[in-house]
Amino acid sequence: MNNKIEEIQHKISYLMGITSLGFELNSFEDYFAIFLKPKNDISYKIVFSLFPVNDRVFFSQLNYSVISLNVNSLMSFLDKGFNLLEDTLIDRKGFHNSQKIREDINILVLHNTEIIENNILVVGDIFKKYYSNYSLPFFSEFQSLQDINDKILEKEKWQDWSNYIFGKTYFKAMIILKLAGNEKGYQEFTAMYISRIEEGIKNGRDDLQQYLDDVIRLHHYLESGAYKNLLKRVR
To answer: What is the pLDDT of residue 115?
Structure first.
């Protein structure tokens, strides 16, 4: 079944035309097909997945995002097992539309070894329209870490950054600010953020102590310039 699903994934990616746009299959694991396209100091990422349920294959996910291997590599300073393919920047609108597509899409059916080609064509066409309508405009808007700095970190309130920057938002924001050369923004945010956490601890939030330690540890690491040695190895 796994081989059959991988075969379907390849057919859908072909129908979407994403390989002709410069995307390459990075990995296929646990029914997730991950495609990447390098762009400056970031990469565009598309993920779609199909899962077997009894004798049927269900469409589960179609997501797109921007990832930065540099940001994720520096995150490994705090977490040695950090996923280098974790999303850096996400598009909430696209995510919600993806959920709608999942509700509307036809089920792909496998009868033993026979793949229903018409269903694959339908799904491929739906994916292609979704990619054209949502993914491409998003990718066009963000073409570097500098764009993330300029259009998100400089324009949005820091409390809203988590709407755009996935996962450990404020650690990643510190790294992006530093890598983008936004020293003023970096120093202002870091000083404010550390102060807020310290205030929380003074008010009884002892559970924040480890978090504060990690923020300070990352801050010292970035300030020392030692991170540049790690970035050389990434390249």
So the answer is: 53
SS3 label, residue 30: coil
Q: How many CB atoms lie within 10 A of CB 159?
A: 7
Q: Please, are residues 106 and 58 in contact by the beta-carbon 8 Å criterion? A: no
**Residue 57, both tokens:** 């294959």
Q: Is 225 left (phi over 0), alpha (psi -120 to 50) or beta?
A: left
| Distance between CA atoms of residues 12 and 216, nearest Å | 46
pLDDT higher than threshold 60 for residue 201: yes
| 12-26, 58-72, 86-100, 116-130: segment of lowest average pLDDT | 116-130
The kind and range of the H/E element at 157 are none
Burial track 83-115 (b if 16+ CB lie within 10 A, e otherwise): eeebbbbbbeebeeebeebeeebeebebeeeeb
- Given a contact cutoff of 8 angstroms between Cβ atoms, the answer to whether 178 and 231 are in contact is no
Q: What is the pLDDT of residues 55-79, one digit of tens each?
A: 666 666 678 999 999 999 999 988 8
Q: Where are the beta strands (DSSP E) in the chain?
A: 24-29, 32-39, 42-53, 56-67, 89-90, 108-111, 114-115
Q: Give residues with Cβ within 8 angstroms of 145, minimum separation 6.
A: 40, 41, 42, 68, 70, 71, 176, 179, 180
The predicted model gives 172-187 an average pLDDT of 97
Cα 72 to Cα 165: distance, rounded to the nearest angstrom: 12
